[in-house]
Amino acid sequence: MSDIIASLKDLVVRGKKNEAAVEVKRALDAGCDPGAIMKDGLVSAMSVVGQKYSSGEYFLPQMMIAARAMTTALEILKPHLAGPAAEQKKEKAVIGTVSGDFHDIGKNIVKMMLESAGYEVVDLGVDVSAESFVEAVRRESPRFVLMSALITLTMESMRRTVAALEEAGVRSNVKIGIGGAPVTHKFAAEIGADFYTEDAYGCVETCKRLAA
Ligand code: B12
Predict the structure, then answer these.
(1) Which of 45, 80, 115 is the last residue of a domain?
(2) What ligand 1 atom has the least distance to the C-alpha of 197?
(3) Pocket-testing residue among 57, 62, 63, ligand 1, by greatest number of atoms within 8 A of Cβ
(4) Which ligand 1 atom minimizes the distance to the CA of 103?
(5) Within the chain, how many helices (H) and strands (E) appear?
(6) Which of 51, 80, 109 is the last residue of a domain?
(7) Tens digits of residue pLDDT in 13-28
């Protein structure tokens, strides 16, 4: 089974969209755990792509092609992720990639995992301004505000968003979670967010704990 996941990872790294889609189905048919397919196949493929980009082996086009393969594979995996417990109350979360940042694969995984766990997720998309987060909190009255950033520079947009929520007087109505590859616990504490988690599973677990 791990051979199939390794092969899936390789196909995503090489941006083989159609083959990756077939490989996800093959992994599911072989009984691989959807969580393992996600973590060890898809998410870890993007780390390899990032390393190749950093080392100069890949350029933007290869990164884009790999991202497209990842997105296609994710769509096939989505219905197989665990469904919500029947008795679970639907909590609402507002999620977005912060201003200046267009990376959305991680955000989409967090959204997908939360929805699979029974949350209602309002997705604001990418390049979301602090003002748009504030508006969404006023409009949607969510329990959670979740922000994603993949670029070191755009982490500052998270700081601005927390400050804007404070200024708007709605900060205490929500729990703020932040994530994305460059984000850390230390940064979350520094900007006054409520939590940071390294991955989407951690985010779901933390939301469950905070909502209990
Ligand atoms: C794919 C990719 C792209 C794709 C994005 C496609 C898309 N639709 O998202 C494309 C090709 C478009 C792209 C563009 C660019 N990219 Co890019 N990209 C990547 C790459 C290879 C993978 C990112 C990814 O999808 N990872 C997989 C997901 C699943 O991981 P994740 O996002 O971290 O999410 C997980 C956790 O972090 C967490 N999480 C995520 N969000 C949240 C939110 C909350 C609330 C919580 C709790 C948890 C959480 O859960 C997720 C799942 O477990 C990274 C390399 C890397 N190592 O990250 C570079 C990378 C992020 N990109 C980089 C750069 C420089 C760029 C560009 C500026 C390049 C350019 N010259 O134009 C542009 C940015 C344009 C912009 N303004 O946004 C740099 C950033 C450097 C830095 N630290 O500042 C990186 C690190 C590459 C590198 N090694 O240099 N990129």
Answers:
(1) 80
(2) 47
(3) 63
(4) 9
(5) 10, 5
(6) 80
(7) 999 999 999 999 999 9
Distance 63 CA to ligand 1 centre (A): 10
Neighbours of 202 (CB within 10 A): 16
Closest residue by Cα to atom 87, ligand 1, is 50
pLDDT digits (tens, 9 = 90+) for 88-139: 667 999 999 999 999 999 999 999 899 988 999 999 999 999 999 999 999 9
As a whole number of angstroms, the distance between CA 62 and CA 12 comes to 11
Q: Is residue 119 part of a domain?
A: yes
What's the alpha-carbon Rg for the chain, to the nearest Å? Answer: 17
Phi-psi region of 41 (alpha: psi -120 to 50; beta: other; left: phi over 0): alpha
Looking at ligand 1, which atom is closest to the CA of residue 147?
45
Q: Which atom of ligand 1 is found nearest the CA of 43?
A: 29
Domain assignment present for residue 61? The answer is: yes
State the residue range of the domain holding 28.
2-80
pTM: 0.93
Query: Can you give the CATH number for the domain in which 195 is found?
Result: 3.40.50.280
Query: Best mutation site among 102, 103, 151 for ligand 1, i.e. most ligand atoms within 8 A of its Cβ?
Result: 103
